[in-house]
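#struct-queue
[09:14] JT: dropping the first one here, sequence first, then the structure tokens:
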Amino acid sequence: MLEGTSRDPQRVIGRIPPRWGDATVEKVAINAVMAGCLPVYMPVLITALEAMLAPEFNLYGIQATTHPVAPLLILNGPLARQLDVNNSYNIYGPGWRANATIGRAIRLLLLNVGGGVPGSGDRSTQGSPAKFAFCIAENETRNPWSSLHVERGFDAAASTVTVWGGESPHNVNDHVSQSAPNLLTTIADAAATMGMNNLYLNDTEMLIVLGPEHAATIAAEGWTKPDVQQFLFEQARVPVRRAKLGGMWGMQDWPTWLHIQDEDTGIPVVRRWQDMVVMVAGGAGKHSSCVPTFGATRSVTREITDAA
């Protein structure tokens, strides 16, 4: 496994919370072996770990919370294709070695080095299937707009990994909408619910993973990605009168930034339209998904390199 990287096996990439164990290159390799990875996956694992250790990702919170959150890895660029990371049918499911083993290696690192053991380091009330393995690639050939990594300032020829602190994907089923506004209204409705952390801890992001057919329907009407983001920002809201019925109402300070005119005022799931993150992935079929966050986290994108 160490043949997949030029880095010194004893080099410490960082300390993984909540145990704060030293994650050396060798320990990454050990957990990669247990997960069934190939050596060529090592640069992805190392870069993803570095991204997860960025302060804004808040790995400590993600590891220790009662919330069912897991790091989702999103790959872009040529390396995703070279490694055969699934970006089409069943992206969140089984059947693909790269997705399953890269995602599993990350989880083993969080368990074995970071101490994210259920009931002690990991206090998630019910957990999530995403805690086993959570790794996908963007379907760039079916994306009518710029890909996620290009949108974040990387060259199209660069290979990147984005880490996202998210829940399991929430399916959006719309087989009848023939217009962008109707389809996006369905997606916005699925993305705004009382039970999600985004509504109360929403200085964060919301991930919208459009299926290729849904993306094509929207783009055919001339909608740009910013158009999509702004529409979703305006429509993915929960009225104050409904939010006050339960959830986390009163536990957070978010009402201080929101100008509430009356109880019909809609609370957005993010504070800025740019935080509605849109990408394209999956196979044929009129389904999309939204991946809410833990709340107190921001996604991080890093270029995959193997510099010593």
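[09:21] JT: and here's the second one, same format:
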Amino acid sequence: MSSSPPKKQAVFIVSLVVLWYSSNIGVLLLNKFLLSNYGFRFPIFLTMCHMSACAILSYISIAFLKIVPLQKVKSRSQFAKIATLSIVFCASVVGGNISLRYLPVSFNQAVGATTPFFTALFAYLVTLKREAWITYGTLVPVVTGVVIASEGEPGFHLYGFIMCISATAARAFKSVLQSILLSSEGEKLNSMNLLLYMSPVAVLVLMPAAIIMEPNVMEVTLSLAKEHRYLWVLVLINSTLAYAANLLNFLVTKHTSALTLQVLGNAKGAVAVVISILLFRNPVTFIGIAGYSLTVIGVAAYGETKRRYR
């Protein structure tokens, strides 16, 4: 009888991981479908929909469902830091969504796997924090793999590649900034409360950007909605999945170790690549697969050496 609680805990964690994978991969594939295959070519507006859903659902989860206790913003200075993080986060999500208009999901994920390289770079440039030389050595295959994958990618698009690299760099910069800006005990926020405060700021930033850069968004969207009656349902599901991915990432982090999360994150990228190739039938080459595999091996080695030499 004593083995029942551990079994229940194991089933619970496995269920969390499956849901986390499903929401992450689901939002990624739906983004690609909407932006590239469906004619809904408005990455800024789509990101605004994601952030609106995150703002509303975060409030419901924290204020009513009590998933985590509400942490209050204590000063203007703290709010300014949160707003700065929100703007950088916006840049990363918009850049990633723009890249999906031009690049296959498989290559997008290969480029996204270089996040540790940019994190190490920004951590050194901003905080002068150095890792062990062996840790930096593991970043060589991370970058080399993407260079090889780029050479072997039939659907390579320079602008899409630049936007994808920019999004990856912005994501890494946000994580480094977060560790600096909200480092004092009085200012630390868990990821769910941070999302609660970042999302409305993101919506306020993205709304004028969408109006200026995507001026015909409502006209085209309404036209598409008449042609494809399920468009709004897809956008709603997509936006809800964007919040679910954040919530489940928080829950998986809470119930597993940092190392487990690192391994699961690496595997998630590989699963997304396989599913996207099967769904979108984008051509892949042996060189492209070899390059992405080298990047994943490098990322895994980076995580292991960072754990050992911290």
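[09:30] RK: nice, looked through the second one.
[09:31] RK: DSSP finds 13 helices and no strands in the chain.
[09:31] JT: good to know. The first helix runs from residue 4 to 37.
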